[in-house]
Amino acid sequence: MSRQIFPFLVLLLVLAFGLSLAFGSVSIPFTQVVHILLGGTPEKAAWADILFKFRLPKALTAVLVGAALSTSGLQMQTLFRNPLADPYILGVSSGASLGVALVILGMGGGGTALTFISGLGTFGNFTLALAASLGAALVLGAVLLLARRVQNTLTLLVTGLMFGYLASAVVSLLIYFSQPERVQVFSLWTAGSFSGVTWPQMNVFLPAALLGLLIALTMVKPLNALLLGDDYARSLGLNVRRARVWIIVSASLLAGVSTAFCGPIWFIGVAVPHVARSLLKTADHRSLLPASLLMGAAFALLADLIAQLPGSQRVLPLNVVMSLFGVPVILSIILRQKQLRQL
Amino acid sequence: MLTTSSLTIGYHHPLASELNLELRPAELVCLIGPNGVGKSTLLRTLAGMEKPLAGTVWLAGQNLHHLPPRELAKRLAIVLTGRVESPLLTARELVSLGRHPYTDWLGRLTPRDEEAIQRAMQLTDTLRFSARPLAQLSDGERQKVMIARALAQEPGVLLLDEPTAFLDLPRRVELLQLLRHLARETHTAVLLSTHDLDLALRLADRLWLLSSAGTMEVGLPEELALGGAVARVFQSEGAYFDHAIGAFRVHQPVSGPVSLSGGQYGVTAAWTWRALERVGYQVHNGSSRHAVHIEILAESRWRLLTPSGQSEHASLQSLLHQLSCASHENLL
């Protein structure tokens, strides 16, 4: 079942991508979607705009975030040999939240939230992304500094958690002293969304995510060696410290850039690698990593599709959909196994 | 192959120093010593996983601690005590990880790698369950797979830290015999630490005997036993090493001497001897008769002679019972 699953996963991804383009608050016939994408003129002029300005970047964002978080989660689970590890375990998303909180909650004295947001202008989202990236990078830098010194991987895990608590405490403090409107804007950011990424932003997001995935790909062999534990990995000739640094760079870049542009997206990062293990029944990262990547992308697309409530004007918070629809699906897959597949 | 000069091992303070050791190809060496004397530390130092406090480890003429990790992994492999918890890995996948130092950046296996994996699994007799995941392997099978993984590295030196720790007696014998066979067959220098003094004495080509004082004695097992070195290193309150029989005796004698005759009933005599020792008697050969004497009359027939009389017994249990009654009377 190991290799044969890949064509199926690719098909699933293509299907989800197609659905995500075709469905939304405005319904566009599928034939028209294909027609427009191939460069034809649409029946209604607005359809091309909707497709190119909104749905295409959004679908692409979903694919990237899904792939990024699943890959990152898989790396963290193996590095820390802990099935509960997720992309945010080293405090990267807490750092990003802190950055965003400082911008939304901490900046400027008066003014309502609305004027504040409009004050940020067309680059409003971009400012948030920048703040989030800086916050994530700050935490990442601290963790990396430690990773080069610390011998024991577990110490790193605990320190990462501590950084996370520290950042959360500052965010709570900011919320405590902020106006309700601004807190609302901040909580909107924490709900997660794929629709905030515009084409100019994609110029940053896409290369950063691809770079993270590329580094992850080169870490497949070290990850396999790390399955045996740090000592054995070292005895196999692996430079464990260096491998650890690169794995953290890759995983945190992926998690950080996703959080920066889409807010913290829960659940995908921890669940998808388990599903991949359950379905593929292997611990070999040469299969697990591409499988997680494909599944994560498809899952993110489908979750976003549900969040749009096709045919209606309402949009549900992404993280709510992730959990409400994701948990039953994933529980059913995992519980069907006799035992939770360990790493 | 692997030698040390004036090696001092330990973490912050030395556990053992001035070690000048040598491992030769095709040789099985057992490292023995009481708990906590630094057997694991020595193995980890020889494997390049810990730095020595002083002195040098030489591997084929080069300073082992200066070798690039990948180069070292091609020449030396280690099997550690900790269990590998990766239940999804199949036996074969685990063994193929041993090719890590040889494969490309993706870890792809060449025909040459496959060959080495096949040979390692053949030698360890693990091909039978090569497709089974680790979770479904017994402790003995798992240990053999770990050894196969080490062999897949095609090392000149193989180190093993307590490889028999989780195994029952038949499995331990099997494993040590396997390692001895491997040493001969692949011309590998094999060093293993073990608590199994008895097996080490029987199967090792040489012993490294590490004492709690931090000194090392090296030699043939028989020589070390005969010279009393084994007894010295392992003396403790609960047990002592009897070098007449080459094994531990658990209890120091607490009761008086007993003589035993009837050696023609070999097995019965041996187990009678053990039973008497277990309850605390100091047993002597029947050639010199003591006040308390036991004579074996048949396969399961004993006669007990004490100053207060004699009795015959059809079971060891009744013999021991009568003996304890008799000695109580004596005390009173």
* CATH-assigned homologous superfamily of the largest domain in chain B: P-loop containing nucleotide triphosphate hydrolases
CATH superfamily of chain A: ABC transporter involved in vitamin B12 uptake, BtuC
Distance between the termini of chain A: 18 Å
Identify the CATH architecture of chain A.
Answer: Orthogonal Bundle
- Identify the overall geometry of chain B: elongated
The beta-strand count of chain B equals 18
State the major sheet of chain B. 6 strands, mixed
- Rounded to an integer in angstroms, the radius of gyration calculated over CA atoms of chain A is 20 Å
Query: What is the helix fraction of residues of chain A, given as a range?
Result: over 70%
CATH topological fold name of chain A: ABC transporter involved in vitamin B12 uptake, BtuC
Write a structural description.
The complex is a heterodimer of chains A (343) and B (332). Chain A is mostly helical and 343 residues long. Chain A has one domain: ABC transporter involved in vitamin B12 uptake, BtuC, CATH 1.10.3470. Chain A has helices at 5-22, 30-37, 45-79, 92-106, 113-120, 124-149, 153-176, 180-191, 199-218, 220-226, 230-235, 240-262, 268-280, 285-307, 318-336. Chain A is globular. Chain A starts with a helix and ends in a 7-residue tail after the last helix. Chain B is of the alpha/beta class. Chain B contains eleven helices and 18 strands. Chain B has two domains: 2-238, Rossmann fold (3-Layer(aba) Sandwich), CATH 3.40.50; 257-331, Rossmann fold (3-Layer(aba) Sandwich), CATH 3.40.50. Helices cover 34% and strands 26% of the residues of chain B. Chain B has a six-stranded mixed beta sheet, with helices on both faces. In chain B, strands 1, 2, 3, 5 and 6 form a five-stranded antiparallel beta sheet that branches. Chain B has a five-stranded mixed beta sheet with strand order 15-14-16-17-18, with helices on one face. In chain B, a hairpin with a 3-residue loop joins β1 and β2 (14-19). The model of chain B has no long low-confidence stretch (mean pLDDT 89). Chain B has helices spanning 39-46, 69-75, 91-96, 111-123, 139-152, 169-186, 197-203, 221-226, 229-234, 266-278, 316-331, and strands at 2-10, 14-19, 22-23, 28-32, 54-59, 62-63, 76-79, 157-161, 189-193, 206-210, 216-219, 240-242, 247-249, 257-261, 282-285, 293-298, 301-306, 309-313. The A-B interface holds A 81, 218, 220-221, 224-225, 227-229, 231-232, 234-239, 277, 281-284, 286, 341-343 and B 47, 49, 68-74, 77-78, 80, 82, 84-89, 93-94, 97-98, 100-101, 103, 105-107, 153.
